[in-house]
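Please complete every field before forwarding. Incomplete forms are returned to the sender.

SECTION A: IDENTIFIERS
Entry label: holo-456
Bound molecule: manganese (II) ion
Molecule representation: SMILES string

SECTION B: INPUTS
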Amino acid sequence: MKDASKISDLLMRQEEIHIVTHIDADGIAAGTIAKKSLDREGIENTIRFVKQLDEDTIEEIKDTGKMTWFTDLGSGIISKLDGLDYVITDHHMPDIDGGKRIHNWRHFNPHTYGIDGSKSISGAGLAYMISISMNRENRDMADLAMVGASGDLQDAALCRFFGWNRKIIDIGKKEGVLGTMVDLRMFGRHTRPLYKLLQYSDDPFFPGLSGRESACISFLKSLGISDGGREKRWIELSPDDRKRVTSALVKLLISKGFGSAFSSRLVGEVCELKREKAGTELRDVKEYATLLNSTARYGYAEVGMRICMGDREEYLKKANDLLKNHRRHIVNGIQFVKKEGVQEYGMLQYFNAGDHIRDTVVGIIAGIILHSREAKNDNPIVVFADKDGREVKASARTTAPLVSRGVDLSKAMQKAAYQLGGTGGGHEMAAGATIPRGTEDEFLKMLDKEIRNQLT
Ligand SMILES: [Mn+2]
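SECTION C: PREDICTED COMPLEX
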């Protein structure tokens, strides 16, 4: 907080600030926290959402001549920022010094304190730290900080938030804006009829239930849920009913050969925004983050930002339309993979979708396929999809057990892409790369080699 306050002091002395943020849920939450804090101080500001900071974008930012606040990105290009007045609040791995302490006080990044930025705090959380150091009043934005953390799946490994995120939750609870409980960690607790919660579940995939409406309804009826979960949503069930359904689901997974460690992941910490109405898509951080992601992925990050700023009505309607559209792309993409089949390559499994799957959903599809019956095995999965121009997007996902054995997809993807003149990065369990079209086979070969090296 001492270092955060140095940065907030610098920001408060400015008349105008240009915010540059990442175009995903965490980036939108981070950018909104930055913007709202500056608005509250009466500091003029503009905001720009970017996918990545390539040379051209960096030049454009420099050309504005404005003091720039990078949120949820920037650490990866810190060596290219000479001549720009900036501060960075980012949790991605810095591009120099191997993530060791970089003696640059304008660069606020957990890795420079020896703290893992992929799990302990998000871009939104870091912006929040600067923000509460500007003004105590900003403590009420703890809910947005946790939407960002959820968007980056920071609770995925342990099924609960930890590290600096824990401190943000504590502040949020004191402020009355956040609440946590131990509950089913599935998507749609607030918004989906119960049978649909099961039917559309892909992580985990429930053999015999996922994708099968009537099977879900009879499963729920057999557990004494009278209408088969058609009317009620998860949050409307009694505690007893919740317990019964949860243990039946755990039993089902175990009986289908999933280990108890995997099956118990169904239950964990859920985090809710107390100021949002129960039963809406903005109440649960996970659903909120999903809504933001679907605005960002289709070029409407501003819509997501407006919602974070507190606007509703037409913005919420637009976001929900985008979410529907997003789900359609995912469903179609998965059907396509199912039809064509996943391939194996050494320690990897992969699927090349060409132009049949949008590059905006390729990562999600990779994650879903890895945990579905379509997967060949437990090895990391890579899904390729054509981007505009002459490039291909590669998205990789792996499982927690492989990460604990040393797999780091971020490093492996970055290294393989770099050798082909592309770029890559992300997190240990989920990473992406952009490579020249036609180099997919070579990329797989290099990635396979990297993963093998990591495992030894
Ligand atoms: Mn992030």
